[in-house]
């Protein structure tokens, strides 16, 4: 990986800063450059003294970066990514790939044509417990899967207490906020672990408790062709953070506790065993492993971990859930067209 000499990060928010720090750590002495997603002039205090600052994406492109990380707000992901891939520059796009299927209009063919150099940053797939959980399901540890329950929530003002949460991306519709887009890691891993679901029934609502213009609570039922049901709850309201996936199988129940990086198996009444437990895991390792893999994608020696097809499946699911919530009825996920 020593062949890399320069990288570009688009965006200057918290996730952009994480990528900048990780790129500098993994690929020193390669140069990291940054351009603001909004076009504003970046200052040293925004990204650090050792990061090159460009006034525009076009100016940054003239330096021919080896690859780029798109860490702008979701409504701008496709616009920014298309500028780069059109010039053959590999891109790691922060999740979700876009805030709507409409954003793909006119650009979908370009993205599909360049799919070998596009990866979408659903970094949760790199977590050790995620890999172990998938392996347990793939080997049929609990037999035939009968039901799936996903629960994710955290009080939004606690996410980044140093800033006004109402001004952050998560809280603003214009920037791609709301639980469906911001917590779409869960919707990505549902597809990764259990395949495609065919219909969605969703209730999405704004409780009024947070002074935001996005949905802060979602409850949904996703149904697969074989009748498997996934019950999904997502919110910005829970004071005690939770992030779990429970799988009820024919011969036992698996519980993936993501916050505690633990997997437990309930095989009978009062019989519980811990199959994976690493509570001291450094969560930045997910992002580091993601960059290591994407570097191989950029070199042409690995396939994207979350390619265009997977990312579009997740966006189709989000759109179906939004349509269901608006109509108050079951929606066919596969029936939505970009």
Task: Please characterize this protein's 3D structure.
Helix 4 links the parallel strand 4 (67-70) and strand 5. The longest helix is centred in the last third of the chain and has 20 residues, at 308-327. This protein folds into 2 domains: 6-121, 3-Layer(aba) Sandwich (Rossmann fold); 127-279 and 315-335, Dihydrodipicolinate Reductase, domain 2 (2-Layer Sandwich), CATH 3.30.360. 30% of the residues lie in helices and 25% in strands. It has helices at 14-27, 44-47, 57-61, 77-85, 108-113, 128-138, 179-182, 184-194, 284-299, 308-327, and strands spanning 6-10, 31-35, 52-54, 67-70, 91-94, 118-121, 145-153, 199-205, 217-223, 229-235, 242-249, 252-257, 262-268, 271-277, 331-332. The strands form 2 sheets. A 9-stranded mixed β-sheet has the order 14-13-12-11-7-10-9-8-15. It has a 6-stranded parallel β-sheet with strand order 3-2-1-4-5-6, with helices on both faces. It contains 10 helices and 15 strands. Helix 1 packs across helix 9 (284-299) and helix 8 packs across helix 10 (308-327). By secondary structure, the chain is α/β, with parallel strands linked by helices. The model has no long low-confidence stretch (mean pLDDT 94). The relative contact order is 0.15. It is globular and about 60 Å long.
